[in-house]
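Homework-ish question, so no full write-ups if that breaks the rules, but can someone show me the predicted structure for this set?
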Amino acid sequence: MVEVRRSTIIDAPVDEVWAILRDFNGHESWHPAVATSAIEHSAPVDMIGAVRRFRLSDGSELREQLLSLSDKDWSFSYCILEAPIPLMGYVATVRLKPVTDGDATFWEWRSTFHPPENRKRELTALVADQIYSAGFEAIRKLIAARSGRMRPAAPAAPPAAAPQPVPVADRAASPGTERTQAIIVDRYGGPEVLRWGEVAVQPPEPGEIRIRHRAIGVNFIDIYCRTGYFDLLQPPGVPGMEAAGVVDAVGPGVTAFAVGDRVAYACPPVGAYCRLRTMSAELVVPLPPDIDEETAAAGLLKGVSASFLLHDVERVGAGDVVLIHAAAGGIGQLLVQWARHLGATVIATVSNDDKAATVEALGAHHVIVYSRTDFAAAVLDITGGAGADVVYDAVGRDTIAGSIRALAAPGHLVSFGQASGPVGEMDVGRLASKSITLSRPNYGHYTDTGAKIARHAERIFAALRSGAVRVAPPRRIPLADAAEAHRLLESRATSGSLILV
Amino acid sequence: MTKVYVSSVIPAPAASVWAVIRDFNALPAWTPFVAESRIEQHMLPDQIGCIRNFALKDGGRIRERLLALSDYDLSCTYSMLESPMGVENYIATLSLTPITDGNRTFAAWQAEFDCAPEREGQLARDIANGVFQAAFTALQKRFQR
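A: Not a homework solution, just the prediction itself:
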């Protein structure tokens, strides 16, 4: 038996490092050796016994099983079930400890296994260097990039003048202050940090209204806020950026709304995972009578995104060829329907046949299952070599190179997310090969005034009303079980929207 | 039960740091706050159950019993028998872990104890800063590269 042990110090607080490492499927987005990864049977990423099946960049496939995971001790262990190399009986443990002297993190990664005698040195070096040390380096870079350029470039970073989040602690308690049930994040971490509790709700000040929520949207950005990937939420705080409900009280000077009006919103600041909330009336839109609260909570944020992506970032129109990645996802489904309605030829990529069927039903003209087909070659094939006029890419690292290959000249690459990992650095000179325009839109910049939000809301409501786009009935989960909603979203077990009620 | 946890990075290989701290009678040699120390009953300083009896530079006297010592895990656990601090059930563990990256050492010192509730915060801060961190800072200086 050999023992491999590597350890390092990461210059970030332990909770921040743990939030990245505890995701058993997350290595896909940060480890340089891992090309793609999925949890079998859509199990939650932190379920003991979950199996991750992943492919290395050299094409070989491995399966590993989670044996233990402790958020209290910041550690997990796992074993190899199948591998193309003889790492027999491989059991590994990842363990973090806080370094109180300097607020850093000690990270130890160690394993034991039984290699064949003649390959002992080779396999020991492979595990130590290409897996463990390379992993340390990748996390170090990721965290450095995050504190530097990643955060401002995040798709939904708040505008500079974003109002402050709902504080969990009471402001100076004024008359009329109420308390409400809420989900509270005391520290960054997994779904288990979502605590059911109570927070104070201030009476509306000038320009504010108080809303009694009837349905609350659950979005991937809420997970990024919970883990600390985006700093939109400073613990302790209430997550959530989307909800619909009824106006309960109106502050001085507010003329646009009256008590009893049905309203919705989809924007920072965070604070939607609660029953009752006070916020700026500027950020809230009235709900038309024919749009119910649950549809609004399920579709407003995604609809606003689709609105500015298709109308402002690019003006998609008749005859355009549009390539949409992750087309079965929340925003993807809206983009497919809406782009088709605008007259575009829609080419969609998805990861499996079930999702392909979903996206075909939504009206995509061509669907590519990218896990078994080179999507860039397929797009060139479909377009007779011309390529797509615009590519909507929220997948990031895994697709960006193919997206450029799939573009027409001149073409427009719209990068608005990074589900597979950060896009990283890009050689601007390469864009000249196809006279490519590159856009990196930020949700905050398209929703930071009442006028902008109102324009997008009108567009999405009109599209819903005319049937140009449909939002599938969302799955309803009790607000107290928000952690369950996050687990479902993270495991990619659901394709439709989730709402909290 | 109050818990104190302090950890630091010492710029030297774990074996070198361990050679300094494994001697249960060596506090005067590596911490800034111990004046003199002896092992009671002529026991050896790495014998489980031995008691170190030491005087602080500010005059207080402390007796501590060695409960566990592992040259494999590079860790040492002890309990406090007598002290002027007013704590009970005090058990502490000092452990080292190699940091292969840079051949350095991760040092962690944790303690658990009972005391009067109103003294808990101040006492925990005093132990964390005045004892554990002060000792780690001395180790860092000693091994400064």
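Now go work out the reasoning yourself. Hint: Chain B touches chain A at residues 5-9, 97-102, 104, 106, 108, 128, 133, 136 (CB under 8 Å).
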